[in-house]
Write a structure and sequence with these properties.
Blueprint (H helix, E strand, L loop, with lengths): L4 H5 L12 E2 L11 H12 L12 H11 L6 E4 L2 H12 L4 E6 L3 H10 L2 E6 L8 H8 L4 E6 L11 H9 L5 E6 L3 H4 L4 H4 L4 E6 L12 E4 L2 H8 L9 H11 L2 H23 L5 E2 L6 E5 L3 H10 L2 E2 L1 E2 L8 E5 L3 H19 L2
Parallel strand pairs: 1-11, 3-4, 3-5, 5-6, 6-7
Antiparallel strand pairs: 2-8, 7-8, 9-10, 10-13, 12-13
Helix pairs in contact: 2-11, 3-11, 4-5, 13-14
Length: about 350
């Protein structure tokens, strides 16, 4: 085969689907579209001329996002999912340069840096997954490239200190692009858009989480018009379909409902976190997202025990995440079923 050795050496993105039972493994919103919004979306789709190419730059969607965020439309870039934007960012600012990551973090950053041949530098986080600002600033010296910081952090769920983010933004200059990935920001009530108004800083967003459009795949960036113009050069033409744009526009026009559902999920996550704290043998990490990271003595056995009871969570791996599992905040019924299965599994593992 003519596949590059670098690609043959890479492990594929690791996800085994288990759609049956209680599905709490992908940080999805637990609610589907309300019927009225579904009917509105279907009417919008019915009016689409599917024999025609979609809007090249998703201009109507960018205008809606501009109104939502009080942002210049030419400072917004839209792609089919924020994963695609991550790839575009590595193409634009990482290839031949450096991709810098605090770890642990979202695995797609590392994967795209490796696929595209950028120099990858990883810096371990401090205690309680604190952002290692001094070490990151040290690594930025004498280099140029791309720094990814998920805030709130994934897969750990903690929110970084705003002063730490500001120090990194201050250091961007004309040699670094600092990307603040705010996929879970709506659950935390956090917003780094003011930092993204600076040259060299970008706020990465998604409609998969709080907006509940994981199946539609829509992501976007808020940044300066100059930087957005450069990024659009590496985004494939007509990449966001008319169907995706229709779904996104429908939800953005009902943002008050989006915010209320995000608030309900955040409350449910807080309840789940408190309940987990009461389970013997479980160490719970603080979270500001729609998921909770927790550690047990034997992560693999607990994961398999839960799976056998029809409850799907996400096992974690890598330095700092030994024996950790991540559970999405579902509905109250789903969360109660998870807790019941977890307690039973822990007893079984202890006596195995």
């Amino acid at each position: 085969m003519s596949i590059r050795p670098r690609i043959r050496e890479l492990a594929a993105y690791d996800f085994a689907p288990h759609p049956e039972g209680v599905k709490l493994d992908q940080n999805e919103l637990p609610y589907d579209l309300p019927e009225l919004l579904r009917q509105e979306l279907l009417a919008r789709i019915a009016a689409l001329p599917l024999n025609r190419y979609p809007d090249l730059d998703a201009s109507e969607l960018r205008a809606a996002l501009a109104r939502l965020h009080d942002w210049p439309a030419d400072g917004i870039v839209v792609t089919p999912g924020s994963n695609v934007l991550i790839q575009n960012l590595v193409i634009a600012a990482g290839i031949g340069q450096t991709v810098l990551l605090p770890t642990p973090t979202f695995s797609v950053y590392r994967m795209q840096a490796s696929i595209l041949g950028a120099e990858l530098v990883e810096v371990p986080s401090g205690p309680a997954f604190r952002l290692p600002v001094a070490d990151l600033l040290r690594e930025m010296e004498g280099r140029r490239g791309l720094l990814f910081v998920a805030n709130p952090a994934a897969p750990t769920g903690n929110l970084h200190d705003s002063d730490d983010l500001e120090r990194l933004a201050d250091a961007a200059g004309d040699r670094w692009l600092v990307v603040i990935d705010e996929a879970y920001g709506q659950f935390a009530g956090s917003d780094s858009s003011q930092l993204a108004r600076r040259p060299g800083v970008l706020s990465l967003r998604t409609l998969s989480k709080a907006f509940g459009l994981a199946g539609a795949r829509v992501g976007y960036a808020l940044t300066s018009p100059q930087l957005a113009g450069e990024l659009r050069k590496v985004v494939l033409p007509f990449v966001v379909s008319g169907l995706q744009q229709a779904a996104a526009l429908t939800m953005i026009e009902h943002n008050a409902e989006v915010e209320e559902r995000a608030r309900q999920v955040a409350l449910e996550r807080a309840w789940l976190q408190r309940s987990l704290n009461d389970v013997a043998g479980v160490h719970v990490f603080p979270s500001t997202t729609n998921f909770v990271l927790f550690r047990v003595d034997d992560g693999r056995s607990v994961y398999e025990g839960l799976l056998g009871k029809g409850v799907v969570v996400r096992p974690q791996s890598g330095p700092g995440l030994e024996n950790c599992l991540r559970v999405t905040a579902g509905t109250r019924e789903e969360n109660e079923r998870f807790l019941e299965a977890l307690r039973a599994t822990l007893v079984e593992v202890e006596h195995a």
